[in-house]
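Milestone M4 deliverable, item 7.
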Amino acid sequence: MLKPFTLFAFVLLLPMFLLAQKESSVLKKADKMVASRQYESAYRLLDEYDPANDRVAVVLKKEDILLNYFAQSINHKVFSLKDLDEGETLQSVRQSFEMGNLYVFNADSVIRRLLVSHPGDCRLLNGYVSYMEALLGDYGFDFWSSSMDSSLSLMFQAASVSCNNAAACCQLGLYYHYYGVLDSASCYYRLATTLCDTLWHAVFNLGLIEFYDMSMQTEGLRDLHKSLKGYSIPFYKARVARALGIIYDEELHIPDSAHKYYSMAVDIDGDDMTNCMFLAIFYASRNDQRVFDAMRDAWRAGIEHDVLWDNLEWMFMRVKDVSSESVVVDFLKRMRKETDTPYEQGICCLFLGNYAEDDNVAVNYYNQAIGFFRMADAPDYFINDILEKIEIRTNQP
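Output delivered:
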């Protein structure tokens, strides 16, 4: 028979037990919904259970759903979700999604508030690291770094021995790397790789720092090759191969190895214009006729991903520097014969005008470029820039 005091304590604890049991049941149900790709329904279930975002486990599950399965996101503070239909994928939904219910969830403020009543809680700190990692992956370095400035204290806590969060160490390494504090950067990268030896971003960045420290070049090459082997995502794997190509080309002056890794980068991810450009520059520096094919591959990759204009002038400048202007001109004339869109024709004529020594020839190319760009609905300011070029050429003394 229970004693009165024991019975009293049991009666007090019973509601807490039932609440914990209810939370566990809700979380399990949400997990099943996520597994069935019912992302919006899972979030709604959690939000109805904890609308004030007071329960740590529920908040972290909400964050996980929003950051990983959103249909649309505004700065990872306002989200839309969708229960996927048969045959739908997140990628297809994100490409065509127009309008949905909006869910406001600011992980930064929610987790900071909960940490006041749960100081040092590694679950919350790890959730904060996941939020920062999502900012970096989905919104890029500049957006992430501006958020890091006010988040360092939380990242330090997550990276401490109490929580040992490898991703926090990697992000701190990247932060210090950006600001040129290489001792701190390498320290955090090493700590990240100690905690997780498959954190390839940390291995790669550590390898770069080590290589350019003359006393650690061997270690740097070892880590770069390790990351090349470890990465499975083509974009990152090709990035390492390209970095190794640059090192063997410009630092160690071993052309066979440089060619191997430049070519490997293109083989792995030939859709990346940068990979193709570096191979083209390598060929140009050796008067290798394969330069034209590599430049053509770079051009096509640029057109495919709408980054041609952003990179073309840089590629031409580098090819001219390591070889001659005639290589660029010959390439442009070849491309003019091959291309059939007004935009590409316009680019060829514009650059041919830039490289023409004779003013009359240049003006003729510029006028042709204007005609093609107008067919491509180029903005007025773009046309005006070419008209200024014509004025400069026609007013030459």
